[in-house]
């Protein structure tokens, strides 16, 4: 079938009423030109959007050399094919092991012992289901989530979404800077000051950027090596502390929190915010494009979805075990101990950081963070435990740095079609992250620096709806996903998850408001922020319902015309999506 014949079929479908006619001759002309540009290698490919990043711009970040998928005689499971698809899921799983997650894990064990392990398990499973949606979007549509948002949302919401994603990325980057600086501080026994460690992160980031020059596979292997370092480091601590295995399993599979108060409930809520990272959904939808998948065949798309899900499941299982190691170590070793108990151990091991537990009220139960956690391990189990802990934190910070860089560049290229070089992107993000961090490190202290991780975990949780609602919207859209769109159960599940996250956010905000100074200006600013936040979340929900078929909502005069979906956003891809496989099947015949 020739290109003109295929275009003719598309035009006939539009005239039949299945896809509405466009508003103007100019738009029809431009869309015809767009379709002509999209017919490549004998089939209709994923539409290139108005303003979305071109393939060449995306290639400049992660896709310079796509990994070929070996061909087999059948579509039965093949370890050889699984190996070809292995990589994106492991890079994605690093966000589940960043310094913010490690701090959340140790605080969970220190505050609630093993009682919140079931929350960690549930959050990881929820994360896997969301990552599955992200991977399916990238495989089926050929576009990552930022590109789809660029194509589907009007300009103003699109820019706001980009800002929210950038806030999440910068917040994550701040956690990585904090974790790396503390790790360097511990490894140097305090010789390298915190502010100097923060500045060192600028240099090491650019060093790691050179790694991807050696090829995609080598880069993925290096990330795997960093995960291995974390597994060995935190696994060593787990073996040394030797927690009660029965209590570990009970906490994991018995959803209960007997005797928990507000502090433990807040910690459980914080686990969800730390595990499910908003920018990670955007990242994973882009990483899956690094494999050379023939999207013109249903079987190949189904196969890619299957292998990516298996790979993501294995990667997140490993990340879950590492998180369990950290939680269990502090549940067994730290929970219920007073500052005096720990300080005596510090004296016995001549720990240079023992002063952090030498407080005026030695009978109190001390707070713990990634710095105090390392000191505690050194005081209780010897210097080796502290240094190995610091190595694990260093690996967590360094691995998260690179994935955050990729997420930022994908977001910038996808949402805004801005094509920056990697070093420029890193310099911008890292500079914004370092400024407040180095000021805290220089003029406040390590307690304030590590305490910032708690605030950043809350910030991540606040950004979650801006990834959850778009991924639900477009993976449930017939126009974007065709026959691979979400079924009704998945739509309901994701919608309930988004609602749960929004409720968690409100709970977080209310708990923090109660701790703020009682001043009208503060409450006014918070009220204004909540109004804007909920208004934009409401807009995304309204847009989602319209895309899912409730076109009657377009008649409700609650939204300015320039924020409403046009016929192009609603339906223009449907013909190309629906014909994508059928036309190729006809060509093969």
TrEMBL record:
This is Natural resistance-associated macrophage protein 2-like. Belongs to the NRAMP family. Keywords: Membrane, Transmembrane, Transmembrane helix, Transport. It is found in: Membrane. The keyword Transmembrane applies. GO terms for cellular component: endosome membrane; plasma membrane. It holds the Pfam family Nramp. NCBIfam families: nramp, Nramp_1. One of its GO terms (molecular function) is manganese ion transmembrane transporter activity. Residues 24-35 have a biased composition (Basic and acidic residues). Residues 20-54 are annotated as: Disordered. The gene is LOC106165454. It is a multi-pass membrane protein. The chain crosses the membrane at residues 117-139, 223-241, 265-287, 308-331, 375-396, 427-446, 458-480, 492-514, 520-548. Residues 45-54 have a biased composition (Low complexity). It comes from Lingula anatina. It comes from the Eukaryota.
């Amino acid at each position: 079938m020739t290109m003109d014949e295929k275009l003719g079929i598309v035009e006939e479908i539009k005239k039949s009423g299945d896809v509405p006619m466009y508003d103007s001759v100019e738009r029809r002309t431009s869309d015809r030109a767009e379709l002509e540009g999209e017919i490549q290698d004998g089939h209709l490919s994923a539409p290139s959007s108005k303003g979305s990043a071109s393939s060449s711009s995306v290639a400049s970040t992660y896709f310079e050399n796509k990994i070929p998928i070996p061909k087999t005689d059948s579509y039965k499971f093949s370890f050889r094919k699984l190996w070809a698809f292995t990589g994106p899921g492991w890079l994605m799983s690093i966000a589940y092991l960043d310094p913010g997650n490690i701090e959340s894990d140790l605080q969970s064990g220190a505050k609630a012992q093993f009682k919140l392990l079931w929350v960690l398990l549930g959050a990881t499973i929820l994360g896997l289901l969301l990552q599955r949606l992200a991977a399916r979007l990238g495989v089926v549509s050929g576009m990552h989530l930022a590109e789809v948002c660029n194509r589907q949302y009007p300009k103003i919401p699109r820019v706001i979404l980009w800002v929210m994603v950038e806030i999440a990325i910068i917040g994550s980057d701040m956690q990585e800077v904090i974790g790396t600086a503390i790790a360097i501080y511990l490894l140097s026994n305090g010789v390298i000051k915190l502010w100097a460690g923060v500045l060192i992160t600028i240099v090491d980031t650019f060093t790691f950027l050179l790694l991807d020059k050696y090829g995609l596979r080598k880069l993925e292997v290096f990330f795997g090596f960093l995960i291995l370092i974390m597994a060995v480091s935190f696994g060593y601590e787990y073996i040394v502390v030797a927690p009660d295995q029965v209590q570990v399993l009970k906490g994991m599979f018995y959803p209960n929190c007997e005797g928990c108060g507000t502090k433990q409930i807040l910690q459980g809520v914080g686990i969800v915010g730390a595990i499910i990272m908003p920018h990670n959904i955007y990242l994973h939808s882009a990483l899956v494009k690094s494999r050379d998948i023939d999207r013109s065949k249903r079987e190949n798309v189904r196969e890619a979805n299957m292998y990516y899900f298996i790979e993501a499941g294995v990667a997140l299982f490993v990340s879950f075990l590492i998180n369990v190691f950290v939680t269990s170590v502090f549940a067994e070793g730290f929970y219920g101990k007073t500052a005096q108990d720990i300080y005596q151990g510090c004296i016995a091991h001549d720990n240079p950081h023992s002063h952090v537990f030498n407080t005026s009220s030695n009978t109190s139960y001390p707070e713990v963070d990634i710095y105090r956690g390392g000191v505690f391990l050194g005081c209780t189990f010897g210097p080796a435990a502290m240094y190995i802990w610091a190595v694990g934190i260093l690996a967590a910070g360094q691995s998260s740095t690179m994935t955050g860089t990729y997420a930022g560049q994908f977001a910038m290229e996808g949402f805004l079609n801005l094509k920056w070089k990697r070093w420029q992107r890193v310099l911008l993000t890292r500079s914004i992250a370092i400024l407040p961090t180095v000021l805290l490190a220089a003029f406040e202290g390590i307690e304030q620096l590590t305490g910032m991780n708690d605030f950043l975990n809350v910030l991540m949780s606040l950004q979650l709806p801006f990834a959850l609602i778009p991924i639900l919207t477009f993976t449930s859209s017939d126009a974007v996903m065709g026959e691979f769109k979400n079924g009704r159960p998945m739509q309901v599940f994701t919608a309930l998850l988004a609602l749960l996250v929004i409720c968690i956010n409100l709970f977080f905000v209310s708990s923090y408001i109660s701790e703020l100074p009682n001043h009208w200006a503060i409450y006014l600013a918070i009220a204004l922020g909540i109004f804007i936040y909920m208004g934009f979340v409401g807009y995304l929900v309204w847009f989602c319902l319209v895309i899912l078929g409730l076109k009657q909502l377009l008649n409700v005069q609650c939204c300015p015309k320039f924020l409403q979906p046009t016929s192009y956003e609603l339906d223009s891809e449907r013909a190309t999506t629906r014909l994508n496989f059928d036309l190729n099947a006809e060509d093969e015949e």
